[in-house]
Amino acid sequence: MERVWFAEVSEKNGLKTKEKLIETGIMLFSKYGFEATTTRMIADKSGENIATMPFHFKNKKNFYKKVLEYVAGDVSATYKPIYEQIQNIESSDSWSVDKAWDCICELIELQLVWAIDLPNPEYLTLIYWEQSTNLDNFSPITDVVCQKCEETLAFLLTKYHPGLKND
What we know:
By secondary structure, the protein is mainly α. It has one domain: Tetracycline Repressor, domain 2, CATH 1.10.357. It has helices at 6-13, 17-36, 39-46, 52-57, 60-92, 97-116, 121-133, 140-160. Helix 2 (17-36) crosses helix 5 (60-92). The N and C termini lie far apart (51 Å). 23% of the residues are buried.
């Protein structure tokens, strides 16, 4: 199924300018990266006047950061159920090796599904650009997908192998 971009259906759905620009930014930054994507390209593809970029986002760098934050929020919503499940088990203090193992498996499966079967493949590409651009060490998508997942997996492994704890 071909993805329909907000910018392509904006007139029918009455989407706001910022939303159109962000969706267009996702599409173009994932394809060309930060350096090669111009504000003119974004304006043309979104159907907006080029003056809307500085009005809404000040400059291209701020706009890029907003795009990455938007994607990070969307990805974070994907992981929210598993993190809530783990938090609920932790707060109930009813950990068992089986529960830890189940959570480990669910988290790894989610990682695989996210990376392989992603409904928004441009998100994965944005992680690459986020890391290669290294714009002010700003990497919100990587933080959500990699760092938080790694911390959670380490936590789960200490529940699965209690001897791993560093007291």
